[in-house]
């Protein structure tokens, strides 16, 4: 362990927190490495809280799943307007008041979901675990404010972190393909949420982020004791978290463990709303014992079930066709069921998942070494078979040339290397669902595992680097800390592994892989984004200048004020000193005695009668000819995000350069080219930021000039003016005819 790092970490903690962690080590609740991990978690949490207190508007790059692909967006959480904005290329696509936010679901890897009242959920993916943690932290404050039925206060006035009601070390059950294991977590209960910090993944995850946040206010969370005195489970709609009270020096008696179990269950129940439609757990469906030896026994049967489960998954296709099964098959059918490592399950349900369907042996072929294309025909419904010709049809009587069919329709392997493809009994170390999707991607990925690292030192695609789509896909299949620990502990030959495992093993060996992938994507996207934003910002600047200097538009507003005051005075209302520009859209809505004659037509008649030159006022506002799309709020968020992205690229370059003191020529060339690009983009972004500041200053002056609130977005203001110009021209034509 690095003594300097240890001293630096503990020196940033209070004496109370240091004493608490030292007592955990003394009581053998955590190892020394786990204690350092806890200390780092406390330091990071304190630092993040302080950073989040410095502002009330937060911008994050996220990816939103839409039309079968992930689209890049900006998620803005604005505590000034108490609104969440979805921004794409400076355009505010959606906005949600804080009051509509119901819950925030922490899902696998970098993904999370925002649950709203009365509308579809938002499934999103953050660019990093750090961003995901910050987003969930901010949203939890919004949800908490909603639960108290009071408006969300300015975030700068909110406490940095909710008080921890209860905390302690618990073991959380997690399932792998071959076994069930208990991983140690620091669990903190706050009002409205349960936060899980993993501290038991070993040396490869020293800076682990919170792995999960369970929102307790969503209405579908329940907690229950299991059959033993030391376990309890927290169930949500998507997950079932099974916790165990660990045996320690202090908790070495069944009575002590049972007391802690009751304490956790009662506290969590207190902060959970009643679960609607929840059915009581069936007796005996989830088993757990209180003795420590029984905990370990669960791993053994799973290892014994592995071969049986694989045998069953291969043979079940044949037995199901005959509608018969042997006692051994029935036994396997009961004992095996799909399980995901990311979803903790009760102990008695810790099953081994069957082999993926893609790896099964076809029923009618004796040599299933070659796969063929599928014929996607339309199948006759079963109830119509008997009365049709198919009822008496026997396909087995027809002889077919199998070799000819295989020769014509076999699937060609697109990979350029000869790795171990799927075999019936070959075990894949990666999670079943992830492995299936990753394997699909690898079919079109013409790169050998050994070439992957070299490709990451090529910045541009035209120079032989990976495509943006490939970088995005690799980023999505980044190995988790548990994956890294599992693969780096592999001692065999990589050539013996499935192609999926070969790539994952290589990815685990590449230092700072996530930062490298993000760096390449960002360094390519930065010039494109700046090039797209520049004309939009310039258009807003020009529009603000035109609006500031237009005398004819002001004269038109004076006519509207005079007409409106006359009508209101005759209606018994007070005269106004001025009106908001949103009133421009109401002129066509006030109809006269003739249904086709509106207040806008009356304005046009008055202008034609007294100052006909004002009819052409729109010639001074040419930038308002079209309805504006991008908003200044959105454009400012885009520039802010670009600034953060460039800072991340600079930090990543320093990180990589530090590790490549004895660099190869390729690595040196990469760092040099990267440095030149960063310097160029810093200059370009500096100029863009100055233009953005100019845009905001001019618009602020516009708001003052017309008496509008400072938080009014340009998309609304400019939209009103653009709509008014269009309706005014239409009314002019109608008055003249």
From TrEMBL:
Start and end residues of each PH domain:
163-273
Q: Where is this region: Disordered?
A: 316-350
| Key word Coiled coil present | yes
The coiled-coil regions, if any, are 632-698
- Keywords assigned by UniProt, alphabetized: Coiled coil
RNA-binding in keyword set: no
Q: Name one Pfam family in it.
A: FH2
**Where in the numbering of this chain does the FH2 domain appear?**
362-737
Locate the compositionally biased regions of type Low complexity.
316-326, 337-346
This protein is called what?
A: Disheveled-associated activator of morphogenesis 1
Q: Species lineage, top-down?
A: Eukaryota, Metazoa, Chordata, Craniata, Vertebrata
């Amino acid at each position: 362990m690095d003594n300097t790092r240890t001293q630096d970490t503990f020196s940033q903690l209070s004496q109370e927190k240091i004493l608490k962690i030292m007592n955990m080590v003394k009581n053998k609740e955590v190892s020394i490495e786990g204690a350092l991990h806890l200390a780092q978690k406390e330091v990071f949490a304190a630092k993040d809280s302080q950073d989040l207190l410095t502002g009330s508007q937060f911008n994050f790059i996220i990816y939103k799943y839409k039309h079968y692909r992930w689209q890049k967006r900006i998620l803005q959480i604005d505590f000034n307007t108490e609104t969440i904005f979805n921004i794409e290329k400076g355009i505010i696509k959606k906005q949600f008041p804080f009051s509509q936010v119901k819950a925030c679901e922490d899902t696998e890897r970098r993904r999370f979901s925002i649950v709203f009242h009365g509308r579809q959920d938002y499934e999103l993916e953050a660019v990093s675990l750090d961003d995901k943690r910050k987003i969930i932290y901010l949203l939890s404050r919004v949800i908490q404010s909603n639960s108290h039925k009071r408006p969300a206060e300015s975030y700068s006035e909110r406490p940095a972190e909710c008080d921890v009601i209860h905390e302690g070390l618990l073991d959380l059950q997690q399932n792998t393909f071959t076994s069930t294991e208990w991983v140690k977590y620091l669990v903190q209960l706050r009002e409205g949420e349960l936060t899980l910090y993993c501290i038991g993944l070993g040396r490869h995850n020293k800076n682990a982020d919170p792995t999960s946040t369970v929102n307790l206010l969503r209405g579908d969370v329940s907690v229950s004791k299991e059959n033993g005195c030391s376990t309890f489970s927290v169930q949500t709609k998507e997950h079932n978290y099974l916790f165990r009270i660990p045996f320690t020096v202090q908790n070495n008696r069944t009575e002590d463990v049972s007391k802690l179990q009751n304490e956790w269950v009662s506290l969590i129940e207190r902060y959970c709303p009643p679960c609607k439609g929840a059915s009581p757990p069936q007796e005996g469906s989830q088993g757990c014992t209180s003795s420590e030896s029984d905990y370990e026994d669960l791993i053994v049967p799973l290892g014994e079930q592995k071969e049986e489960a694989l045998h069953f998954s291969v043979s079940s296709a044949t037995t199901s066709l005959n509608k018969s099964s042997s006692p051994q098959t029935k036994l396997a059918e009961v004992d095996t069921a799909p399980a995901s490592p990311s979803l903790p399950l009760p102990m008695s349900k810790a099953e081994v998942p069957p082999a993926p369907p893609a790896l099964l042996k076809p029923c009618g072929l004796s040599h299933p070494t070659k796969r063929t294309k599928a014929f996607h025909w339309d199948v006759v419904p079963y109830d119509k078979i008997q009365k049709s010709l198919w009822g008496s049809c026997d396909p087995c009587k027809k002889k077919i040339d199998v070799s000819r069919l295989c020769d014509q329709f076999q699937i060609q392997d697109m990979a350029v290397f000869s790795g171990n493809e799927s075999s019936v009994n070959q075990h894949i170390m990666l999670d079943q669902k992830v492995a299936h999707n990753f394997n699909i991607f690898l079919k079109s990925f013409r790169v050998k595992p050994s070439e992957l690292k070299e490709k990451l030192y090529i910045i541009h695609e035209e120079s032989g680097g990976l495509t943006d789509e490939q970088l995005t896909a690799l980023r999505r299949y980044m190995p988790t800390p548990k994956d890294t620990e599992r693969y780096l502990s592999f001692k065999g030959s990589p050539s013996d592994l499935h192609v999926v495992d070969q790539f994952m093993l290589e990815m685990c060996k590449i230092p700072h892989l996530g930062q490298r992938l993000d760096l390449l994507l960002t360094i390519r996207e930065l010039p494109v984004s700046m090039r797209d934003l520049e004309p939009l910002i310039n258009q807003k600047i020009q529009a603000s200048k035109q609006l500031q200097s237009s005398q004819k538009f002001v004269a038109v507003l004076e006519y509207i004020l005079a007409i409106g005051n006359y009508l209101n005075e005759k209606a018994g209302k007070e005269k106004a000193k001025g009106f908001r520009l949103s009133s421009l859209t109401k002129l066509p809505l006030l109809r006269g005695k003739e249904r086709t004659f509106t207040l806008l037509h009356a304005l046009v008649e008055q202008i034609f009668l007294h100052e006909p030159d004002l009819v052409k006022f729109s010639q001074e506002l040419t930038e308002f000819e079209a309805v504006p799309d991008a908003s200044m709020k959105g454009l400012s968020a885009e520039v802010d995000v670009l600034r953060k992205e460039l800072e991340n690229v600079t930090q990543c370059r320093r990180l990589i350069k530090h590790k490549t003191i004895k660099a190869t020529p390729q690595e040196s060339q990469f760092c040099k080219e990267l440095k030149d690009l960063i310097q160029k983009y810093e200059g370009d972004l500096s100029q863009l930021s100055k233009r953005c500041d100019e845009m905001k200053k001019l618009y602020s002056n516009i708001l003052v000039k017309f008496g509008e609130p400072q938080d009014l977005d340009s998309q609304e203001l400019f939209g009103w003016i653009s709509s008014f110009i269009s309706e005014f021209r239409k009314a002019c034509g109608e008055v003249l005819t």
